[in-house]
Amino acid sequence: MILVVSLAACLWGIASLLNMPHSIRVAILFIIYFAVLGLHFVLPNGHMLRENTGHSIKPWLLLGTVVSLVFLYITGLRQLRHRARITVSENVQKETEKVSFSTAELNRYSRHIILREIGGAGQKKLHEGSALVIGAGGLGSSVLAYLAAAGLGRIGIIDDDDVEISNLQRQIIHSEEDIGKPKVFSAANTLRSLNSFIKVLPYNCRLDERVARQLIDEYDVIVDGSDNFETRYLVNRLSVFNKKPLVSGALTQWEGQLSIYDPANGDPCYQCIFPHAPANHLAPACAEAGVLGALPGVIGSMMAVETIKIIVGAGKKLSGELLIYDALWGETRKIKIERRPDCPICGITDSITTIP
């Protein structure tokens, strides 16, 4: 039996060196196999050829059965994959018939469109949706990049800082060539090069009361990646007044957190959970305490996911829960959060008519 297997291996190797088609090489193996079976059927017991090819026909029949089963399994698997590809292609075609996208857009967003929870209709919602991202720093970098890649139709960016070399350890939307430039323009250029089908609006200014009142009502979702409590309380207050869902994240050293604050849908606002800003020494800035470079990418990506879910209407939003991620120990936990009846921002009445 070993002699026949060795002969088959040699013939396969010679056929490979001669670049013979795979089908011919397989045919050679089948010819050898059936020739051996024929010898065992025709020749009497004890014949020299039978002795040199395994004494008995049983091992050959067993080998043929095993090879046949493997062949049938591989063939069936290929057919299933082929059917799956056809099904995916048909689903994409059905979904895209519902909306109007260019061929380039269909190719770009095809992985979204085949998702049952998004589909063509959901991608259209993204195309028609908008988000104002507060801050183009660590959190903002990942949020902006993934919202742009996802095809969010209108993205506003507000920040008054310039790119510094110390930013590049975590703010991946900027490059060394951008050092000294306003972050919003650096970010806008990156997003436009990433996706030419979206509209990017940079606001190179500090978010104060006047600017916030003008901008927040113009967007569907507010995404807060700011690094100070003054801005967070301002954004929260005006998001509540304008009934806009607020996706908020924060970082410190190895730990990040995020949640969705949306009192218009019965959820708490940011000030329900953090009634007062902590003392400076209890919440030092990244420049003082340090921060893991990859951590903003993790939390920022989660913020982008939650923003997409809000606009598309998919899944369970991270509302009424505070997600905390500890990168140092690889732990994630959720804390249930609720509205405070005495909250000065959303606890007075469910229908705020004046800005507090």
How far apart are the termini?
Answer: 90 Å
Helical proportion? 40-55%
Strand-residue fraction? 5-15%
- Helix-strand makeup class: alpha/beta
Quaternary form: single chain
Strand element count: 8
The DSSP helix count reads 14
Order of strands, main sheet, comes to: 3-2-1-4-5-6-7-8
Q: What is the approximate shape?
A: elongated
Rounded mean pLDDT is 85
Task: List unreliable stretches of 5+ residues.
Answer: 350-354
Q: Which H/E pattern describes the elements?
A: HHHHHHHEHEHEHEHEEHHHEE
Largest sheet: 8 strands, mixed
Radius of gyration: 31 Å
Describe this structure in words.
The protein has 356 residues and is α/β, with parallel strands linked by helices. It has 14 helices and eight strands. It has helices at 2-17, 22-42, 48-52, 58-96, 103-108, 110-113, 119-128, 138-150, 183-194, 209-215, 229-241, 270-273, 286-289, 295-312; strands spanning 130-134, 154-158, 199-203, 221-224, 246-252, 255-261, 321-326, 331-336. An eight-stranded mixed beta sheet has the order 3-2-1-4-5-6-7-8, with helices on both faces. It is elongated, with a radius of gyration of 31 Å.
